[in-house]
Amino acid sequence: MTYDLVIGDRGYSSWSLRGWLLFDAFGIPVRTLTARLYTDELPNLLKDFHPAKTAPTMRTPDGVVVPESLAIAEELASRHPEARIWPADPKARAVARVLAAEMHAGFSALRNYCPMNLRVSYADCAPPPEVLADLARLQVIWDWARVQTGAAGDWLCGAYSAADVFFAPVAARIAGYNLPVGPAAQAYVAAHLAHPSFRRWRAMGLIDGADQEFYRRDYPQRPWPGPTPLPARAVDGTQAENTACPYSGKPVTHVLELAGRRFGFCNAFCRDKTVADPEAWPKFVALYQS
């Protein structure tokens, strides 16, 4: 048996991103069940996950339903200590929990003014004073965490941890709305955008259903500031170097072209998520480099 995880639209659901990262970034197998936001899909799906009413919601292999990303983080950490979801050092672990708790409960101005949208980046969104205050607070606690834990790398408390998971959607907002933060915060955002699990989630979010009108803004746009994907494109036909999908092992039905070479997949989603960011997918990279 494995875990089940209910998520919303990958391009927009910041809470779902947190829940999924707690599995993918720490190597814990999970089966995802997706429901489109602003429809009846999510409440209908959650009927099988009583008493949950939001995404993400986890069901453990023994059938325990765990809504809320912070509860999911704690339960996974208890069941999988080897994954090091929280830092091993007691002081760093305490700091990480402080960060995650404040993010879980706070920063409402930033959340409301800049809802996460991984499909676009805006050149300017004219953030009001309340949003600027949230950004200032973020930089205060990020700097505090590094001082307290002695973290000198990309992440706030040493190795990548649940604290960083909880700030991944914030990094997406800063990148997506070109929000003004200092050099240290910009470097932290860049680390998130380059994280392999974040890149996989965003690649799926780019092709995971139609745009949601609620998230559309009329601000001027700019290129996404994360790593530039390799220039793959979807093509017709089934002729490819490989005969089996690199993800499922099933026969090839859909094909992409990259650098004059053709690679096959078992369905449109497998192909299109790879087109969106080929280097995000280790199994495809292994095939491409073979």
TrEMBL record:
Pfam family of the protein (one): GST_N_2
Transferase listed as a keyword: yes
Coiled coil: none
Molecular function terms from GO: glutathione transferase activity; maleylacetoacetate isomerase activity
Keywords noted in UniProt: Transferase
Record-level GO BP terms: glutathione metabolic process; L-phenylalanine catabolic process
Domain of life: Bacteria
Occurrences of domain GST N-terminal (ranges): 3-84
The protein's name in its UniProt record: Glutathione S-transferase
